[in-house]
Design brief:
Blueprint (H helix, E strand, L loop, with lengths): L1 H19 L2 E7 L19 H9 L1 E3 L2 E2 L5 H10 L26 H7 L3 E7 L41 E6 L9 E2 L2 E2 L5 E3 L14 E3 L8 H14 L7 E6 L20 H23 L6 E7 L7 H8 L23 E4 L8 E3 L3 E2 L2 H10 L15 H4 L12 E4 L5 E5 L2 E4 L11 H7 L11 E4 L15 H15 L10
Parallel strand pairs: 1-10, 1-11, 2-13, 3-14, 4-5, 4-10
Antiparallel strand pairs: 2-12, 5-6, 6-7, 8-9, 11-12, 15-16, 16-17, 17-18
Helix pairs in contact: 5-6
């Protein structure tokens, strides 16, 4: 009798403790520039009222960054609190293997230890174990539908790295094109894709197996609806974590017809507006089901806008990177400076703005501090706790000693305060087109110098290379970068 009473008391305590923990929702856009969000600017060619409202309720970070200028690395870094370049640089291609190791720390694994339910929705793009379903005698990465047993469990995906539930399409522009729930295929990709037809806003699909009736226009609204449904089923006495990775506004640009013409920036702008609408649906679900007041919501993107932004600038006078140079893949600011909004009622002052340099790897340490989890010395080694910033406490700025950006092997940028050093002759990964150069009043950097140095406070457009004027600073920053590359963690463990 006494033992039963003690168990009841313990369970009650755990339930009460869990109910005090914040729910956490991450809304993650795909290829969205830092200036593609209106933040209440009535003159913006792309209006995002739901994101504007989220920013008004929380904190807008003007200097927020993804780990990489491309998607897979940024997603890995966000979920692990560890920079991708410690392990890899590129993306997971079609039928690519998982980038995770079984022992890896992840945010959902950590949260589950504190009693959270964890759900993942939309674009995974971190790999699965396709070999587990590949038929004997077929080659690795075989794109033919008949080379796989689609009835088998699909391992090494979200369920094996901390999530209780997954629903999504994997990656909208990489085969197989189908719906996946948990670790099983909901629809079987039996139809071959030889060459896809051009879609509304441009872009096509890579050849590979597709499920009959699969429609790319369904992806964004479907994964959002699945997220909303999952939230509606959560319990008040158990905290939850939802990670919704949109396929938008990544190519192919597929806004649904009711959003056509809603922006002044073509189909891309329309796709951003549809994404904003999906954000609104998730926020409404939190409110409807009584979770809004105890939910920490983060909105950001995996990298800057695709290089089609050059053409959009010419046609619509809309520059996705705002006052910054660069696009997706670049080491210039536009490649990795992204929208970043964090809302947490009762904790974050509504309508606050932070100019602190922050990175998506910082979410892991922030969540750990918020839920009372003690990070191990090998967990989230590059992650800084952002709670002092979020709570408006006094702290020594800059919070980060340094920030490392990377997209390609051996090419890095190191940010310290207002200064950024790029260890290559140019921060651009592709040719900078003439119209863009003229618009931003910039010139391409040649190979006359081995590195670049900019003061972003004075020169946010990264027009003037100061490397020759500050050789000592360059040497110090290169040495600091090398220290990180040799294995030194970017974040102190006592933060």
């Amino acid at each position: 009798m006494q033992a039963n009473l003690l168990i009841l008391i313990l369970l009650t305590y755990l339930s009460l403790s869990a109910s005090k923990l914040p729910n956490i929702v991450i809304l993650y856009a795909d290829d969205m520039g830092v200036a593609d969000v209106s933040y209440g600017n009535p003159k913006a060619k792309i209006q995002t009222p739901h994101l504007d409202r989220l920013a008004a309720q929380g904190m807008n970070f003007t200097d927020g960054h993804s780990s990489s200028g491309i998607c897979t690395p940024s997603r890995f870094a966000l979920l692990t609190g560890q920079h991708h370049w410690r392990r890899f640089h590129g993306i997971v291609n079609a039928f690519g293997q998982s980038v995770f190791k079984p022992e890896d720390f992840t945010i959902p694994k950590m949260l589950k230890q504190k009693g959270y339910r964890t759900g993942c929705f939309g674009k995974w793009h971190l790999g699965w174990d396709f070999d587990a379903i590949r038929k004997p005698g077929t080659r690795k990465g075989d794109p033919r539908a008949e080379s796989y047993d689609w009835s088998k469990r699909f391992p090494d995906g979200p369920l094996d790295h901390g999530f209780d539930y997954y629903f999504g399409d994997g990656t909208i522009n990489f085969p197989p094109y189908c719906w996946i729930e948990g670790d099983r295929f909901v629809t079987i990709p039996t139809q071959p894709v030889i060459k896809s037809k051009p879609l509304a806003g441009g872009g096509t699909f890579r050849p590979g197996p597709m499920a009959e009736g699969w429609n790319p226009y369904d992806v964004l609204p479907t994964v959002t609806q699945k997220t909303v449904e999952w939230i509606s089923k959560q319990k008040k006495d158990q905290p939850f974590f939802a990670y919704l990775a949109f396929n938008s506004p990544h190519y192919p640009i597929v806004p649904n017809k009711k959003f056509h013409g809603k922006s002044k920036a073509g189909y891309y702008g329309d796709f951003v507006i549809e994404t904003d609408t999906m954000v609104g649906q998730v926020l409404q679900a939190l409110k409807t089901h009584g979770f809004a007041k105890n939910t920490l919501v983060i909105f950001s993107a995996d990298n800057g806008a695709e290089n089609h932004a050059f053409e959009r600038l010419r046609k619509f006078d809309q520059w996705s990177s705002g006052k910054y140079r660069g696009v997706k893949r670049d080491l210039f600011e536009g490649g990795h400076r992204v929208p970043m909004i964090i809302s947490w009622p009762g904790i974050i002052k509504p309508g606050s703005i932070s100019h602190e340099v922050v990175n998506q790897v910082d979410l892991a340490a922030t969540f750990a501090k918020a839920i009372g989890y003690s990070l191990g010395k090998d967990e989230a080694i590059d992650s800084y706790n952002l709670l002092p910033v979020l709570q408006g406490e006094k702290y020594k700025s800059p919070l980060r000693h340094a920030t490392v950006q990377n997209t390609s092997p051996k090419k890095f940028a190191l940010r310290q305060g207002d200064w950024v050093m790029i260890n290559t002759p140019s921060g651009a990964a592709q040719k900078e087109v003439p119209y863009y150069l003229k618009h931003l009043k910039i010139k391409p950097f040649g190979h006359e110098t081995k590195c670049l140095l900019f003061n972003l406070k004075e020169d946010p457009g990264q027009r003037k290379n100061l490397a020759s004027a500050y050789p000592t600073k360059v040497i110090k920053m290169k040495n600091q970068l090398q220290k990180y590359l040799d294995g030194y963690p970017c974040a102190p463990r006592n933060n």
